[in-house]
Amino acid sequence: MSTETDADAREQLIDLAEEFYEQFEEGDVPKMRIPTRTKSNIEYDEDKNVWVYGDRESTRTAKTISGAEKLLKATYTIDFLARQLDQDRSSTLRELYYLSESWDLDEAQFNTQDESNNLIEDLEIVSEVKREDFHMRPEESGAKVMGPLLLREQTNRGDREIHCQDDVGQGGYQIPNNPDTIEFLDNDAEFVLCVETGGMRDRLVENGFDDEYDALVVHLGGQPARATRRLTKRLHDELGLPVTVFTDGDPWSYRIFGSVSYGSIKSAHLSEYLATPEAQFIGIQPEDIVEYDLPTDPLADSDVNALESELEDPRFQTDYWEEQIELQLDIGKKSEQQSLASYGLDFVTETYLPERLDEMGVL
């Protein structure tokens, strides 16, 4: 079912292609400017409380062979996306990579999937249209929601109403690629708990944590997909639910929190759409490792380097994070969520999370 959003997305893409032709007609070498997607080019937007791209730009220009090939690939991709929207079809990022092998010019075909993924991001930025509105899907993220929420989801087989406890099994409700197709109908939740690992998510559901505390348990599945972050933001903004993020106690997990709360470098152009600045960290803290004497692993060199990098990362330059990271560097240890099981399978739901949530003012 084609929508007004689809028509707008197609028009933006066609306008972008027309810019290339206009540059040709005016005798200019075609080019496309995009923000430089590096940590040194993100800055804090105090009005929106998220991290966004700064003023540094990279230029794709046909002055070089490699630049000309990138613009050629962009033109072919725009044509493919416009036709996809016309036909009300969708495709995955992986399919786009393979589809390019059928294009009539070898130079227009992608050499790697990273190349096609990066081009879609370029087109998002310069057209100001989200890839979801191009009908581009990532590979399945597997992220699920369990909790007291009734919603209506628009699908190509019609609308369906789903209660995220009563109408689903132990696996929960699977988040669709575009969470903006969801309408919230009724909600009895008190807060959102985003959980990094599948094992911990299953422990919380098996122990009935979602039911006892009226929690919406969102499985992040590691580094969270855009759909997961978008749904989390909507749950906060539209339903007024506090958002907490429960992860392992290591530098890579802190970055998972950072992507939920402040946005990621790769998607800084969508931070206002994806990030939830009010999210609070409830993961394993270095001070928990000390206080609870949790089972640990030693920090690897890569962990130490990552922690030291985070001390310079603007997303983590707060008193809380500086204190925790410096403590972790001092003790030289990291710990997983499931290390709490050293106190029994119920400790996490009966003691650890309730105490942390109470301290944070969520319960």
TrEMBL record:
PANTHER family: MEIOTIC RECOMBINATION PROTEIN SPO11. The gene is top6A. Residues 191-357 form the Topoisomerase 6 subunit A/Spo11 TOPRIM domain. Its cofactor is Mg(2+). Relaxes both positive and negative superturns and exhibits a strong decatenase activity. Pfam families: TOP6A-Spo11_Toprim (PF21180), Topo_VI_alpha (PF20768), TP6A_N (PF04406). Homodimer. Heterotetramer of two Top6A and two Top6B chains. Signal peptide: none annotated. GO terms for molecular function: ATP binding; DNA binding; DNA topoisomerase type II (double strand cut, ATP-hydrolyzing) activity; magnesium ion binding. InterPro entries: Spo11/TopoVI_A, Spo11/TopoVI_A_N, Spo11/TopoVI_A_sf, Topo_VI_alpha, TopoVI_A, TOPRIM_Topo6A/Spo11, WH-like_DNA-bd_sf. It catalyses: ATP-dependent breakage, passage and rejoining of double-stranded DNA. Transmembrane segments: none annotated. This is Type 2 DNA topoisomerase 6 subunit A.
